[in-house]
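# nightly structure sweep
# worker-07 picked up a monomer target from the shared queue
# config: single-sequence mode, recycle default, output format = structure tokens
# input follows
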Amino acid sequence: MKKNNFVERSILGTLSFLKESIFADEYALKKGFLQSLDPRIKTIIFLIFILQILFTGNIFVLLYLYALCLLLTFISKISLGFFLKRTWVFIPLFSFFIAIPAIFSIFTPGEALVVFQIANFKFIITRQGLSSASLFVARVITSVSFGVLLSITTKHFELLKVLRIFRIPQIFVMTLGMCYRYIYLFIEVIQNTYLGIKSRCGNVFSVKKGQGIVAWNIASLWQRSYVLHQDVYDAMLSRGYTGESKTMDEFHATFKDWFWLGLTILIFGLSLWQNHYLN
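# output follows
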């Protein structure tokens, strides 16, 4: 029974985490600082920040940008716990494990910092390797944090509209919008399917029967998705969908938007100057 409860908690917890991570429109509706900016200007500002992250080779500048990202999160009335949980999972952790081999002398020769031995194999951690790995991980975490902050402080349809304003191909924007809707739909289907299995079969059944149920549901989900995609697209066309994202409110840039854009460009220029003359 405990094992079943563990599996159940794992499945429902994973689905709930995915749902909360991908779909958080309530944060875009709050009256925070970033939510008050024009989506077009805000997107440009965040692109400048990400370019700044890519160009800088100084880890202290990256830490400053990450601190600025956390400050923007706070004044935008977003829970820091929710934001950190959402940005430190998956890509940053994956990049951390990728960067681990780079700290050893076999991949990055240089000045030895730590030397240890495991089963007759000698390992040397170098200063150059540790510096490169730290810079890589900091760059990934900061980039992901700014990307996530932009997505959760901007309404989904506004972000798609901004992409079209920036001349992103319509097929790409339409595919992105459809994926967003389908992920939400399939999470709902998986949760309802699991609840249906539990209500009919209970928590206790054999391994062979459980494998059969899972295989049948995978096949059923595939068939339903195949049929559903055409039905959804037909329904969208019948409601006037033309491939363009439309919103009820038009975008209006104010003095505040242009001020923050100018300040961001100034910070970007100072960062480039620092990289060129001080490194």
